[in-house]
Design brief:
The structure is a homotetramer of 325-residue chains.
Chain A: E1 3-8, H1 13-23, E2 28-35, H2 43-46, E3 60-61, E4 72-75, H3 83-87, E5 94-97, E6 109-110, H4 117-120, E7 125-127, H5 131-145, E8 155-161, H6 176-179, E9 184-185, H7 194-205, E10 213-219, E11 225-231, H8 237-247, E12 254-256, E13 272-279, E14 284-291, H9 295-310
Helix pairs in contact in A: 1-9, 5-7, 5-8
């Protein structure tokens, strides 16, 4: 029997990727789509390549009081836009919030699915990790769990493709002409994503992430996140790799690689790639994490979380290999 | 029971896409991979995101005399490299040649799968259309079949992403620094792809394509082909659209759109998009065709052809929605 | 003695390029800059790399009644925005309108500077050609002048980088994520740029351009225009090249090349490249024209026009070689 | 009287940019060009937009024993290729080596022109800094000089456009299809560029750069280097900015900005942009440096060095504003 799925924010980038994944999912049936600017359009008007059986689904104006019968709702709304509305969704509808409003909020489970899958099973309110935290925390988790990196002294140099700014973020700064051939650091010493990362680092290590430094950069590409993370520790490269292989043993979506991972390895998939380079004599550990910001960094992990809360195989609908080149 | 599949030329772009599609196919099992430079590597060394069950498959040196038991072989070799070797493949192995050596060659069926599916069923030697012809012919077929465009007076202005030049084509002209921010017309009045297109136009129309003009351009993007085609005819835009909707009625992979199609609509899929704009007073018909050069233009159509010759549903393994953005 | 220059619309792409060229011009002194959103900023706030002597120039709100003493005013405003305001600029201020409002308007001279320089000298109101017409007409002029192509039967397949959509055009369609890896035909059988091209073709040929077909495409690159033009004629390739070499003999900015021109050849310069391929047996002439849409297609040609109307050497401030790669 | 200039390695990216700058230089005359693959071609065959007066200059096979009379020679050869050959250039020919063979080599002056211009004046053998060091050292110099950052504890996360890999580096990894939409860390804990940076940090600080960490990344863009540098110090952001403003007071090419610098700010120019963000409570200083890897990172700084050794104004031929967008 198929699971009835809705997507809110479907004409954004995260919502669009959720649509693609739900459309290819063996157990999900998309029965509800809502958007803001796109309300009233058919799905095929927004996504000309949508499977034919979904082409004529009409995008609704988002109204939590007017939902059809749903089993799962994916919400992909701008930060600040989902908290109040999602509170009005009936309790028997399971929600995965791809947006940022419910991370580390009471009553919601933080859906870092490759690290804590058992905590997610059976829940009905999941806050999906942000795209930067997805890359960062997947790379750090094994080191923190084994005490191979000091939690209080971590520098994260993070890079994202421009879809990470969202589709609404279409001021001329994100226009092609100004973004192409441009690399832009931003938000230095600011705190977006920081509480989420610091809290999770604390949980993983049992220590404090007080010294966390996080510098994001916009890279002229559509998709992809790479975090290059510098920390203190006395482990060797091999010990770090070994710790990660052990930590993710049997997990489907995290690949531990000898080589530094490249963003294109993950494009279009729910995979995360992690690697390490360490120099114990210099008390240095470098961790690297790569995800597709719309895959593991948004809709891919959301579907993984939905699989877990629905009791489905974790990989259902997520086993496509990355698109290359 | 799964169908045993091999891929030759797996480390090229077409072969890599064939690998991705075969890996996600419900009835295909990849049991043989061969390459030139990559022989001796494991699949995961070349494709870090390959599904885990295929990771350790070792890429062989291509040798038609040393094949394992295979049901289907996909060949994606440079033009000129496949004719002799494929002749030595046992007759009971079905072959889809993605390369150019067997198009309109005796004993091989031209695999324009959306137009002539019934001719392909049951055959064992299929020559896959080139990426430009895939876009051009899919757009032109309905007009030619209905006599809405003169076959002898067609101008094709074609544009391709740079993966169309192949992975071997990595001289500095195709390097990022020189290709980025550059748009390059080439091969003016030359004849690559011309006999294939002229022959097919002839078959579709019953007339001669003697006046065919074809100008390809390299566009700074990885994937995608758009053909903008100018011809003579007295039909209206609506008549052209209607002819195409009728021609492709019930066909899974061709979408007829009111709007001019964009290459990104097809990325990562086996879809083709066609549209038309006509001005009967000026005796003018413009046809547009869009494909992903590695999808419908190569590996996607190859899998579609393999489905047809194996008696599988035509859409098996090909129903993924395009990747956007 | 330096010539006092103003630029209106300075924070757009055309205005920004005009600023760059004026800043490097041996006889021009930028004394006035006006913008809409940027009013009140200093030039360095908008252009961090502006020469130090101009850094503190404050961008004014555009008001034709409050101009300082100026010799030349460059206007780079969206279509429809300049007609009324420029009418209120004092007569003794020479104007080059980079925007579209004054092309083929009474009292304004059409500034196709490489073709009709003598008509421009001494005038005070110049309408700069559009970026597509700059590429198209530069390529066609020699053929039309010598009767080597029929004026009434011309098909123009034109491609532009995305800065051609303007900086104001920053809706999500022009955002990086949606524009990258996308090739977009638009405006089929519509008439923007058509009257300008048809009128000029008529002037150049003495005939009618009634059958003109023009299809623009957005290409994922920032700068560059290529027009691939298909026409009827009985000349050979060599005769076309020879006609162009004769036509542009002694002219500084038009390069006639044997090879098909690439957009990157012109980046950052005021150059135009033209080439031809013809097949007299098929009554076929292909003409190609390349410009930088912000150079010869906008600000470069504007400065060239300003040089002509000010009695300066035509190449003053315009002799920089293109930026490569 | 003009200064007679030669360029070796002219068909590479650094050599090509040197050609562009020399062609626009008021005192330099290009009289000799040498290349490897391009020997025998005219300059216009390689650079279709070269100024007409240089079009017919024939590219020679590089032979230090067969030079014409030269005042200055720019050498832009792959690492390892210049040491021996440049030793055979007559002593009265001044040399600026853009390549890496003579950095911190006896008899050669390290040409960090914005920092130590007086050491360069009057010399005849200049080793141009590498592109990464140009960005890194320009950002760090003021902090090191004032003791605002610990020299022994510096982490450099560096990003470069793909032209930084050189034109010879055209294997498929640098091909458009594989580089586009890809972000690639490489050379972790390796030592290219490290001795150059460590030595200079030592000179600037009087201390040891023993703990230096340097991680380069390839970014999908043609030009541009950004270094994001993490260090230890107790200064505030304002103190860092103030130190840099003082350090570079009166210097033409270094811009100290409040905002984090973007690579596009420098494109096509010899400018460097530096900025800082510091948190004294966390003992944290972040320094950022941006250059065009072919400008200040190669040919721009080379021309600046040549100006200094020839007794010309430092900015001669280098005052063009950056190309935007």
């Amino acid at each position: 029997m198929s699971i009835r799925v809705g997507i809110v924010g479907i004409s954004g980038f995260g919502g669009g990727e959720a649509m693609r994944l739900v459309a290819g999912h063996p157990s999900f049936e998309l029965v509800y789509a809502a958007g803001e600017g796109s309300a009233g359009s058919r799905l095929v008007d927004r996504f000309p390549g949508v499977p034919a059986r979904l082409a004529d689904l009409v995008i609704e104006k988002w109204d939590p009081a007017a939902l059809p019968r749903l089993d799962v709702l994916f919400a992909s709304l701008p930060t600040g836009a989902s908290a109040e509305a999602l509170a009005r969704v009936p309790q028997d509808v399971k929600i995965v919030d791809i947006g940022g409003d419910h991370r580390y909020v009471d009553g919601w489970t933080y859906g870092l699915a490759d690290v804590w899958p058992d905590e997610i099973k059976g829940r009905s309110r999941i806050a999906n990790p942000g795209c930067f935290p997805a890359a960062v925390l997947t790379a750090l988790a094994p080191l923190l769990a084994d005490g191979l990196i000091e939690p209080g002294n971590i520098v994260i140099d993070a890079k994202t493709g421009i879809s990470g700014a969202g589709r609404g973020g279409a001021d001329s700064r994100f226009g092609y002409a100004e973004s192409n051939e441009n690399l832009v650091p931003y938000g230095l010493l600011k705190h977006t994503h920081m509480p989420e990362m610091a809290s999770t680092i604390g949980r993983l290590s049992g220590g404090s992430a007080a010294g966390l430094v996080f510098t994001p950069h916009l890279v002229p590409m559509t998709r992809g996140v790479l975090a290059t993370i510098y920390g203190r520790g006395r482990a060797t490269t091999d010990q770090c790799l070994e710790a990660a292989r052990r930590f993710y043993d049997g997990r489907a979506f995290v690949r531990v690689t000898d080589r530094p991972p490249q963003t294109k390895w993950a494009t279009g998939s729910n995979l995360a790639f992690v690697s390490y380079a360490a120099d114990p004599e210099r008390n240095l550990v470098i961790a690297m994490g790569v995800v597709d910001n719309l895959g593991k960094g948004a809709a891919g992990q959301a579907v993984q979380n939905a699989n877990l809360i629905c009791g489905l195989p974790e990989t259902a609908g997520l086993d496509g290999a990355p698109v290359w080149p």
